[in-house]
């Protein structure tokens, strides 16, 4: 696969993350597995595609890209090699601040819904490298109106070492946490408060895409409710049987039990009757 074809396929993978990320059971459709299959020759192209493609998305959709980024980091860190160390230390980890900024852009209040997930991703990545940065409690002057707040934006110059990028990312998360708390405080004090809208406004296509993504997430949540894992790997649980057996009245079967057995016997005969 040449560089051009690899970029095209990877862009397609990124655009379909809301359908495949974390739910795909097939290796040929798993976005993380696609990266692992081809990153040895194309990791620089893939890294550029992550940012180029995510920049064109709505800020809410970019969270899928950030989650995808974190899964790649975790997999490469778990499989130590010279190549993986180079990809992590030279590309992925030094760009964590820029990656989080995609999901938490300046002057975008609706993007603050991504904050909790971004903090969780940052904490996991920070833990992988030994917890070099600690998030501080955000502080904010509650008397300032929302449209007068200054938003922190990390430097556009790429970090030479990932220590600097993690420090920038921590500052970014603290700033966005302060903005979120300030907005909540304004709501408690004054009720509904005008929030400056981000520019440009989402298009009709973006809104429809968000609706489809929400439906897909809702469907995945329902699928998780359909599966009830048993306490043990076996389909039968001895503890469950013993509990039911010991709860049986000592005087033996009741009339209701005999009635149920008769009904089950009748249903079984009807099911296997030959006409």
Automatic annotation (TrEMBL):
One of the GO BP terms on file: positive regulation of DNA-templated transcription, elongation
GO CC terms: CTDK-1 complex
InterPro entries documented for this protein: Ctk3, Ctk3_C, Ctk3_N
Domain of life: Eukaryota
Pfam families: CTK3, CTK3_C
Domain CTD kinase subunit gamma Ctk3 N-terminal: 1-98
Domain CTD kinase subunit gamma Ctk3 C-terminal residues, every copy: 204-268
Name of protein: CTD kinase subunit gamma Ctk3 C-terminal domain-containing protein
Species of provenance: Zygosaccharomyces rouxii
